[in-house]
Design brief:
Strand 1 and strand 2 form a beta hairpin. The chain is globular. The protein has 181 residues and is mainly alpha-helical. Helix 1 crosses helix 4 and helix 4 packs antiparallel against helix 5. The protein has nine helices and two strands; from the N terminus they run ααααββααααα.
Amino acid sequence: MSQFITTKDELNTYYKFNSDVKVSTIDNHLLTSEEDFLLPILGSAFFDEMIIKYADQPNMTTDEKALLVHMQRSEVELAGWMAVDDFNVSFGSAGLTVLNDKQSGIAPASEARTEKLKLSLKRRGLKSIDRMIGYLYANPASFDTWKLSSAFGDGLEYFINTPEEFQNFHDINNSRFLYIK
């Protein structure tokens, strides 16, 4: 079961799924989103700490609550992206099938619309991940377990953090303005 999305209200806060979609319907995708995206960024120890804090939300700090929003938004959008194909096609004894119920007026979305939705959810999810990362790095003092983890250090190791570092690769005359631009 997802660690950070446990209710339909939480799920629908970040994406408006149809009323027949329950958390259990998309839970495998939520778990994959946590494992593939959140866990590597947060690190195991901080991920586990946030699970405990999620269970006791009234006692979370303002920064922890804000981070949780970033985490949940990312998780839902990326899970939605991963789930589109599974929701669009069923696999059963008749092989691969698609929903086509003329009585209810429901028909499968066109391939073009499906692809647009997938692209939109992927872009939104990855932007949400970027905002979560930005929030973490803007507030490291609020997240000691994360700051002490290799996840924090790994995020700094492969980036150019100063104009002086950038100068080693491209001549900007050590200009902070050119570095920022």
